[in-house]
Amino acid sequence: MEEYSIGTLSRRSGVPVKVIRFYTDRGLLPPAWIAPSGYRYYSDQQLARLHQIVGLRWIGASLRQIEAVLAGHTSLSDVLAAQRMYIQAEQDRLRRLELRVAMAEHALQDGEASVWAQLYQLREMMQVTVEERRTWLDRWWRSQLAGQMSEDAINLFVERATAMVSDQEPSEIAASVWAAIRDGQLPRLENLPGRPRDVGIQTEESWSEWTARFRAAWQSLKHVWSSDPHDTAYQEALQDWVRCHGPLTQDTVQRLLDGFTPVAQTFDKMVMGESAVHEGLSQLQEGLKILKNQLP
């Protein structure tokens, strides 16, 4: 059986001598034997073991995990599964960190003082319980929409928006709420008391009747969602959606724009204008402005 000095083992394996010493001192790579002079000697068995250690380190395994594999206390498949879970968690952490950095960059446009205030608020928000976060968002949405929408409309929006909150970052919450709106899931109105006219919608329909018509119009609009707002198909679908809120007039479109703008601005602040949320909102706003100019 061939034996190597630590220097020869280093050259054959490509692992620095100081790293081999560390693994040996840690007990991961016991030498084949130790000479009376104290020199350590290794064999092909230790070379193969060193290759295992290097391979496990290459996939990010901890020293504790390596010890367990080499001792036969855990399997390589278990280590790989654990590494995949760790990587996914780390990717999620980095994604959230990227969102926070983007928020700070966005806030910096309003001055450094604004950055510190917003970072503090966001950090406080993410450290509280889900229920406390819902309460925080309830107050925040109401402060953003106050005076811009009817009280009933605000209540509906806030109720559905806060119900979706779990452990998401603010930008993730905005994206989730927007996805629900886009898919016709927000708000659920069928069981509301009264009639749509009670909250300013110009129709004599019941909530159930109006909601069915509204969802059908929204689904039609979704089919042309990625089209140019100037396109005939887009404008026709948009007109059907506008008719759900009143007669097809400039006044109805302007009323929609007046109520839509604060919501759009709020979402835009939360996503820094860099996502499909921003694009979808901008598309709809642009379509409404085009339609208004075309109406007598």
UniProtKB/TrEMBL annotation:
InterPro entries with a match to the protein in the record: DNA-bd_dom_put_sf (IPR009061), MerR-type_HTH_dom (IPR000551), MerR_fam (IPR047057)
Protein name in the entry: HTH merR-type domain-containing protein
SMART domains (UniProt xref): HTH_MERR (SM00422)
HTH merR-type domain: residues covered: 3-72
Keyword terms: Coiled coil, DNA-binding
Coiled coil regions, renumbered to chain: 87-114
Classification of source organism: Bacteria, Bacillati, Bacillota, Clostridia, Eubacteriales
Organism of this sequence: Sulfobacillus acidophilus
GO molecular function, one term: DNA-binding transcription factor activity
Pfam families reported for this sequence: MerR_1
UniProt cross-references to PANTHER family, sorted A to Z: MERR FAMILY REGULATORY PROTEIN (PTHR30204:SF97), REDOX-CYCLING DRUG-SENSING TRANSCRIPTIONAL ACTIVATOR SOXR (PTHR30204)
